[in-house]
Design goal:
TIM Barrel; alpha/beta; binds iron/sulfur cluster; 7-stranded mixed sheet
């Protein structure tokens, strides 16, 4: 594998795609911010972003029957590459490749792309997982330092909207927040947004 150019990598039972290192947030708990260069032995800092053709070729070089899910995630926010990711998923489907598709996102892709990207998920993704992280816009600003104003609301609006297009929509928090915050986030997720809720264990560097 070319150093500094890990496009796909195995983690658990899934195959992950690393399309970009760009991100519009700077979360306090992010392994990128904490200077880590590797996740599960894979060097995920890209010397350059892979082209859509290189992403497709990397996925196709794998035996997809070995994985439960194909997850667009990586060491950055994948929706920076939304159009290329849609092209890749369409190409896989056109070739008859069958695999459960998921995107792990910070949920602000519509701000990043300057348009509502939720419809792009229709027919392409089986699942979307959105990082909710915390329960108020003020705490979100302090924890995630978004580049754009209104990111917390935009993330919630995207998640509600994408439920119209994707069978399974999940929101996650990391278990480092207080029990009260975990409960407040559960209410936002399940009662305000109508998504599945998951509390993730913190992964240290
Ligand atoms: S959204 Fe993800 S990649 Fe971006 S700073 Fe936060 S944890 Fe890191």
């Amino acid at each position: 594998m070319e150093k500094g150019f890990t496009i796909t990598y195995e983690y658990g039972e899934n195959l992950y795609v690393n399309p970009t290192n760009r991100c519009n947030l700077s979360c306090a708990f992010c392994v990128r911010r904490n200077g880590a260069t590797a996740l599960s032995q894979h060097d995920l800092w890209l010397t350059r972003e892979p082209t859509r053709e290189e992403i497709l070729a990397s996925i196709e070089s794998r035996d997809l029957s070995r994985y439960r899910q194909l997850v667009f995630c990586g060491f950055g926010e994948p929706s920076y590459r939304m159009e290329d990711i849609c092209w890749v998923v369409d190409a896989l489907k056109a070739k008859g490749k069958k695999i459960f598709t998921r995107m792990d996102t910070n949920g602000t892709g519509s701000l990043i792309n300057g348009r509502d990207i939720a419809p792009d998920f229709a027919g392409r993704f089986d699942m979307v997982s959105v990082s909710l992280n915390t329960d108020t816009a003020e705490k979100y600003e302090a924890l995630c330092h978004p580049q754009q104003p209104g990111a917390f609301q935009a993330m919630k609006d995207f998640t509600r909207e994408v439920r119209r297009y994707v069978p399974r929509v999940m929101m996650t928090v990391v278990d480092t927040i207080s029990p009260e915050e975990i409960e407040a986030c559960r209410r936002i997720c399940e009662e305000e947004i109508g998504a599945e809720y998951r509390v993730r264990a913190y992964i240290a560097d």
